[in-house]
UniProtKB/TrEMBL annotation:
The keyword Transcription applies. SUPFAM superfamilies: Homeodomain-like (SSF46689), Probable bacterial effector-binding domain (SSF55136). It holds the Pfam family Cass2. This is AraC family transcriptional regulator. GO terms for molecular function: DNA-binding transcription factor activity; sequence-specific DNA binding.
Amino acid sequence: MAWVESIQRAINYMESRLLEPISLEEVAKQAHVSAFHFQRTFTILTDISVGEYIRRRRLTLAAQELMHSSIKVIDLAYKYGYETPEAFAKAFRRQHGISPSESRKFSGMLTFYNRLTIQVQLKGADPMKYRIVEMEDFQVAGIKRTFSLPNEENMKEIPKFWDQVNNDGTDDQLFRLNNGPIKGVLGVCVDNKNDKQIIDYWVATAFDGDIPQAFGQMTIPASRWAVFEVRGPMPEAMQQVWNRIFTEWFPTSGYRHAGTPELEVYSSDDPTSSDLYSEVWIPVK
């Protein structure tokens, strides 16, 4: 259960620094993974982002202080990292539904979020279909965008990127170009080695040959891959498999993420089909 312990260690780190600026990169170091992989894992496990968890916990603690102390609202705002009392009051009302002054008078209900504790539920009734594959490095051709990790920009903008390539015909070009060892169009997440605050995201396809001018090229390194079968319509089926990978498979498999690019593999079939076949490729060690 070392994987579970590493995630809990990162949560404990956040909890110990709720009154300080918290860097996603520093949080991820506690779990021995990249900022992107921690962000993605945390969101899959909890259904909220790292930033949202921190905001909820700070506003929960702030409400407790308002109820049980005489601290001024302006001092509380600065204590919990808000630049102005107005910004604090707006965030407070968004979470609790009442103003800070109203909470002090016990004149409304408050929304409290407890400290997270990661627990694993071991399930076996519904099997997960996967295989382990050893593969040499290979080339992909496609288009790349760079997204920022702070404020979860990547989580908001990557779906828009996919909408763009689906609507402008880029995905059709990539399906026609595909001649490499993996069949389909790929979503590829790549940690940026020079700037830990950003990631590179590719919509690409495995291709061996002269790259058309409209596309860029990158090398996917030789890896041992855990390849998971995905059956069902998008995006629900893909999301469900990612959830099971992190809540069931990683905690009990003995494997760890290798930290190199991971892949989602999509076919050209009807994305609404109940029998649509897709895959998740995770580099493991």
